[in-house]
Write a structure and sequence with these properties.
Elements: H1 7-21, H2 27-52, H3 56-63, H4 68-79, H5 81-97, H6 100-105, H7 113-122, H8 126-157
Helix pairs in contact: 2-5, 3-4, 5-8, 7-8
Length: about 160
Amino acid sequence: MPMWINALMRTLATAQLFTMLGITLGKGTLLFGMVYDYLPFMIYPIYNVLAKMDKSYAEAAVDLGATPWTAFWKVTVPLSMPGVMSGILMVFMPTVSTFAISEFLTNNKIKLFGTIIQENINSSMWNYGAALAFVMLIIIGITTLFDKDKEQLEGGLI
């Protein structure tokens, strides 16, 4: 249900909730807000990979003498890595560019990369803001290529 509400509205509501509870806005509230907003984007890809995974692999490991814990770490975790990598990429991209969460949950005391870009654009320093946005684009592009190479490598091994 919380995901049906706009992320900006969730962030504003979270900031208001912290204010009502008397919690000082800072690093802890920023971390809570980022986890609250982006955790579903990490869970969904992992869930999809685990839902499609053949359960007979773990059963075979247990049949061959592995404990359930060992079967989990030696079979389930490696087979779920494509979902983990996809989740990391899905969370990394919006996290790098976010500025509203840090602005509202820290009263603009903590500046993230997206916040710096936004402030430069708003203060008519277009060249510097555009250069930082380009650097962010390059970083995101490199991580996307790394994720695709990793998936191709894993696809060739399995």
